[in-house]
Amino acid sequence: MARHIRDNIFWSCVSGGTIWTAYEVVSMWAFANEIIPYVDWRTEPIYFVALLCGIQFWRLFHFYWAHRLTHWKPLYKSAHYLHHKNINIGPWSGLAMHPIEHLLYFSCILIHWVVPSHPIHMLMNAQHAAFTPAQGHVGFDKIEVGGSDRMPAASFFHQLHHRYFECNYGENDFPFDYWFGTFHDGSSESHASMRAKRKAVHQI
Fold first, then answer.
1. Model's pTM, two decimal places?
2. Does residue 186 belong to any structural domain of this protein?
């Protein structure tokens, strides 16, 4: 097994698994001890379902801004550089992060300390954060079936972030990268636009 894969497994399991578990355990304890606001699905079924459906949008919002923050030079040099050692990405790259970044990445769970919710909401949020990075880092975009047919399988969008670093901080499900000028679709036009923006920033 290549050394970088062993390193990715170590950071994903030892740091990522521990911090993910700690967030869940403390949150479950806080729910059980009525420290954080709780919602009962039997008394608030519409709110319960609406919140369950909204968790993915919260995750996309949190991921974009937390990811942008880790590209701030002090955080990049102290933590996020570890994740970006993966240029040729694979599934174990997704959660291969420094503990500082894991603390920030899984802080999406803290919304349940403020917004009335149920442990099911918290678990869905935590597991969405924990499992989707593998799909976003598989290293290919589609699977060929029968020679020519292709089915979507991963996130080329995020793969471009690992190639160019200063683009595609979020996911293409939510248009933050369009809105804030960090979108790259892999085309030569997008690449030229990104390089022009970089050049303009360095000239300031």
1. 0.88
2. no
